[in-house]
Amino acid sequence: MTVTPTETTTPTATSTQTPPPSPTTTSTPLPPSFTPTETAIFHATSTPTSTQKVPISTPIPYPNPVAGPTVTISFDLRDNSSWVKIEIFTTAFRKVKEVTLTDLPAGPQNISIPLTDNEGDPLANGLYYVVVANQQGRAIGKLLVLK
Question: Out of 18, 59, 142, 147, which could bridge 132 as a Cys pair, Cβ 3.0 to 4.6 Å?
Fold first, then answer.
């Protein structure tokens, strides 16, 4: 018997793929950045022709500190006033007293008001603000109540 050798061949193939060449980009450097500067010049086109007149002087409570049943509020009106409102506030800005007067002439005023709140209870010891106002403006003073 004769034996013939058999040969088996398995074909092998290797495939290599090269990527296509990438495009080459060259960048041009940008010029250095800069910040634009703006300058504005303003010129006054008019000058004031009048000065503001204070309509009421700062109210001065007398005596201060006050211990009596009334306090006298002194202020000066620059012009005749159809109404003047005197208000008393706590330091927490709570209104405790309001008195409105009508038809006061120009000049110094001395107005006595009781040291009570709007319900008639006496004011407690402490610091209060007195605001005197009319149709032209207002002024603010301090009042110290010590009983």
Answer: 59
**Cβ(137)–Cβ(131) below 8 Å:** no
* Total structural domains within the chain: 1
Distances in whole angstroms, Cα of residue 18 to Cα of each of 15, 21, 22: 10, 9, 11
Q: Does an H or E element contain 83, and which?
A: strand 81-90
What tokens were used for 30? Answer: 């940008």
Rounded to whole angstroms, how far apart are CA atoms 93 and 95? 6
Distances (CA, A) of 74 to 99, 103, 131, 141: 14, 16, 12, 10
CATH code where residue 115 lies: 2.60.40.4070
Position 105 in a domain: yes
Q: Is residue 45 part of a domain?
A: no
SS3 87: strand
Say if 90 falls within a structural domain: yes
pTM: 0.60
In a domain, residue 22? The reply is: no
